[in-house]
Design goal:
- The protein has 295 residues and is α/β, with parallel strands linked by helices.
- The chain has a single domain, classed as Rossmann fold, CATH 3.40.50.300.
- It is 35% helix and 17% strand.
- The strands form four sheets. It has a seven-stranded parallel sheet, sandwiched between helices. It has a three-stranded antiparallel sheet with strand order 1-5-6, with no helix packed on it.
- β10, α7 (198-213) and β11 (218-223) form a beta-alpha-beta unit.
- Residues 1-40 have low confidence and may be disordered.
Length: 295
């Protein structure tokens, strides 16, 4: 084993230098994995990976709690004794290391079978671009081909080994990275996250139509931040408007997995890097519906 800290960042920069014209124009017709340094022999990379279920979590727009839902799904599955990995595919806005309290200071190692992902307190394997940045708040200013290349590296050049579930946290929208994941990874199902606002559901319908056109199974919709509960009187307050998740799911012909409340405890745990300490009956009900839909 040897230290390969900042491997992906360096390789991405080299690809950018070697393919300067196409990277700057965004008109590259080559697979980023075939550019420059990436032409090295990869025969052993990922050779022992056996990932049985790939669940993608996506949303139409940002700010609906997609990354939090990703972390909660992974945590709930890990508590059930499943082997779980989280692939943070939100390259320009990674948040999983912060939520799980895993920093680059843990040290990145690799073998001939790929980069060895750090693990969380519950043993969840985690891979994110933030592990390769000098500072966690440094921006990743890459065009689409480089972003797609990084996601493919996270999938094929990481030593995941045996996983019951891989949870992929996508960036919002229907751009390059979601398209790369859906075309390149063996996705078993997609969980779509939204919030009660009309604007959020207007955009999420675009996401639903995208996945349906690509014939990717949609496991269902999770309506996040559907309500808040007053800590003093237990009154349910619909802070973002009336719940619409069930109606939108029915109109789109997909399942409604359930709703999650806005909970200040979850926000505090995520900020403290302790998302694995959070649990709720609502999340467990959602997980039970997801599991029965998968092989």
């Amino acid at each position: 084993m040897y230290n390969r800290n900042e491997l992906l960042l360096e390789r991405g920069m080299k690809m950018s230098e070697q393919c300067g014209s196409c990277a700057s124009s965004g008109n590259c017709n080559l697979d980023p994995a075939e550019c420059g340094e990436a032409k090295q022999d990869k025969s052993l990379l990922g050779a022992f990976n056996n990932i049985r279920n790939v669940i993608v979590v996506m949303s139409g727009k940002g700010g609906v709690g997609k990354s939090s839902v990703t972390g909660l799904i992974a945590t709930s599955l890990a508590r059930q004794g499943k082997t779980v990995g989280v692939l943070d595919a939100d390259i320009t806005g990674p948040s999983q290391p912060k939520a799980f309290g895993v920093s680059k200071d843990t040290g990145m190692l690799a073998s001939e079978y790929g980069i060895i992902p750090p693990t969380t307190r519950l043993g969840i394997k985690l891979m994110s671009i933030n592990f390769f940045l000098p500072n966690e708040d440094d921006p990743v200013i890459w065009r689409g081909p480089l972003l797609a290349g990084a996601v493919n590296q996270f999938w094929g050049e990481v030593d995941w080994r045996d996983l019951d579930y891989m949870i992929v946290d996508l960036p919002p929208g229907t751009g390059d990275v979601p398209l790369t994941v859906m075309q390149s990874l063996p996705v078993n199902g997609i969980v779509i996250v939204s919030s009660p606002q009309d604007l959020a559901f207007m955009v999420v319908k675009k996401t639903i139509k995208m996945t349906q056109k690509m014939n990717i199974p949609i496991l269902g919709i999770v309506e996040n931040m559907s309500h808040a509960i007053c800590p003093h009187c237990n009154e349910i307050i619909e802070i973002f408007g009336q719940n619409q998740g069930e109606t939108v799911a029915r109109e789109a012909g997909i399942d409604y997995l359930g709703s999650l409340p806005w909970d200040i405890k979850l926000n505090q745990l995520v900020d403290a890097g302790k998302i694995e300490e959070y649990s709720s009956d609502e999340m467990e009900n959602i997980i039970s519906k997801i599991i029965v839909k998968l092989p």
